[in-house]
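dumping this here so i dont lose it
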């Protein structure tokens, strides 16, 4: 029994030594080639869209740490079994470690941006783990019982020390990894001076309340990146190619010299549930994408713009949507953004540049860390989320949300201010209506909206009587269409239904 435990322990410690060594090597080569990250990223790609949706909904921003923890736990379990097997047959150790190494190599090499060097960390991990295992598991006949040894050389104390050291190295490796790349990118971002807009956003109309603009710190973040791409602007370029007459490439400095448009636009995630938090409004600064496309000369039939990020993400947007954007008064042109709320784009939100297409869910119009724009067709290419079953065409659905009072709030009877937001991008909101319990729908008061592509704030004065009540909201767009109350899940093209909040009045 002792011996079996010892073998499991040895397996886990050896795997830990191997993986942390690989992680340190990855810090030098490419943070994303670390075996744990690479396997995690491969898992993300292989996960069905519905499961991923569920993960984002239930675990939110913690979905990735949880996934990485899962990979580590699974690896530890397999390593323990390998230790056990190696104690019986010595060859089982190296064979098993080699198999794990092969998985790591495969994961690293199948990353969209992989180069051959990315195989090195997993190879190093496997080699180090194997060597450690062979050293620790002495040939049969060696005294298996730790208690027979003098105190100072107590095997368990020794192994405990090793385990601690390994944990330290792993932690240092993981944080060092992201720190090294993160610092370089942060320095690069600190050095950016944003140009003044050639076309500034009109000042927000009076009557717009605080909270209209979402701060960069509070802005939701949704992406598939396990390690946020850290880009150095000096090595970054934006290429426009594919079905165009005049492909071209811009450096970051060249992009900054283009005419700059500033505008307020609301961005939505398709995974947002009715009433959910994955929506925000910012003041964006960027270059008209339609202008760049006209310069390149889009060829007939190129109905899809495929945007590629530095981490290999692909996002497909209808060419017509981009070319038409901003042509109807009140709508805002699609941009290649470099600024968000008077700052260079935050690293998490796509530094140094991202696409932004108002009125289209983020997965189909707003590629972060963009580096390439390829003119293509919907027939020829399915973007990342489309391959996973999401709709290729993804206009944002008209919706509304109650922000105050919060769910299950306890309120004093009398005047209660109910408040929230509503949006019908590209069309605009003409009314917001509130229903208390089964009463008639009554109009809320709208705050002014700066343009048709932002959300609108609304308030409703409610004379609350004691008891339990349900408040419900729905929006009406400027064509007179009432937001549908029919419930739909976010998959495959956005949630629908009326947001409601239950409260108790005393
Ligand atoms: N490169 C890249 N761009 C991306 C994504 C991504 O995973 N990778 N996610 C998209 C999705 S689903 C949304 S909703 C928006 C979110 O942008 P934000 O994180 O700045 O809020 O970015 C889009 N652009
Ligand atoms: Mo999204």
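and the seq i came up w/
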């Amino acid at each position: 029994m002792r011996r079996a435990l010892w073998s499991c322990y040895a397996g886990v410690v050896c795997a830990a030594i191997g993986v942390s060594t690989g992680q340190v090597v990855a810090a030098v080569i490419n943070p994303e080639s670390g075996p744990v990250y690479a396997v995690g990223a491969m898992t993300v790609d292989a996960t069905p869209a519905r499961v991923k949706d569920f993960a984002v909904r239930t675990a939110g921003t913690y979905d990735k740490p949880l996934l990485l923890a899962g990979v580590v736990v699974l690896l530890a379990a397999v390593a323990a079994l390998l230790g056990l097997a190696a104690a019986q047959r010595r060859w089982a150790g190296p064979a098993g470690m080699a198999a794990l190494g092969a998985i790591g190599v495969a994961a690293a090499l199948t990353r969209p941006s992989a180069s051959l060097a990315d195989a090195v960390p997993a190879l190093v991990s496997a080699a180090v783990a194997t060597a450690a295992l062979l050293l620790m598991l002495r040939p049969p006949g060696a005294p298996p019982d730790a208690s027979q040894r003098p105190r100072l050389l107590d095997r368990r104390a020794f192994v405990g020390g090793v385990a601690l050291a390994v944990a330290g190295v792993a932690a240092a490796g993981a944080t060092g990894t992201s720190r090294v790349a993160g610092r370089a990118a942060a320095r690069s971002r600190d050095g950016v001076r944003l140009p003044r807009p050639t076309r500034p956003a009109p000042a927000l109309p009076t009557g717009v309340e605080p909270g209209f603009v979402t701060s960069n710190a509070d802005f939701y973040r949704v992406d598939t990146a396990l390690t946020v791409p850290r880009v150095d602007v000096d090595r970054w370029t934006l290429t426009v190619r594919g079905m165009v007459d005049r492909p071209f490439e811009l450096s970051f400095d060249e992009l900054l010299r283009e005419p700059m448009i500033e505008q307020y636009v609301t961005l939505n995630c398709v995974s947002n549930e009715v009433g959910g938090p994955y929506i925000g409004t910012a003041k964006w600064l960027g270059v008209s994408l339609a202008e760049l496309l006209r310069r390149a000369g889009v060829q007939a039939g190129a109905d899809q713009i495929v945007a590629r990020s530095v981490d290999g993400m692909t996002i497909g947007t209808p060419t017509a949507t981009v070319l038409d954007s901003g042509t109807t008064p009140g709508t805002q042109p699609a941009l290649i953004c470099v600024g968000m709320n008077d700052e260079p784009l935050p690293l998490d939100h796509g530094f140094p540049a991202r696409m932004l297409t108002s009125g289209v869910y983020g997965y189909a119009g707003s590629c972060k860390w963009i580096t390439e724009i390829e003119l293509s067709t919907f027939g020829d290419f399915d973007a990342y989320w489309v391959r996973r079953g999401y709709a290729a065409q993804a206009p944002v659905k008209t919706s509304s949300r109650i922000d105050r009072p919060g769910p299950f709030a306890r309120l004093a009877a009398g005047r209660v201010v109910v408040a929230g937001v509503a949006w019908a991008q590209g069309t605009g909101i003409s009314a917001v209506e509130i229903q208390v319990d089964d009463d008639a729908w009554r109009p809320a008061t709208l705050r002014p909206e700066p343009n048709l592509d932002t959300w609108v704030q609304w308030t409703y004065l409610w004379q609350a009587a004691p008891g339990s009540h349900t408040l419900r909201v729905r929006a009406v767009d400027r064509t007179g269409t009432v937001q549908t109350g029919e419930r739909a899940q976010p998959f495959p093209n956005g949630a629908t239904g009326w947001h409601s909040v239950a409260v108790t009045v005393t």
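Residues 222, 269-271, 361-363 surround molybdenum atom (ligand 2) (CB under 6 Å).
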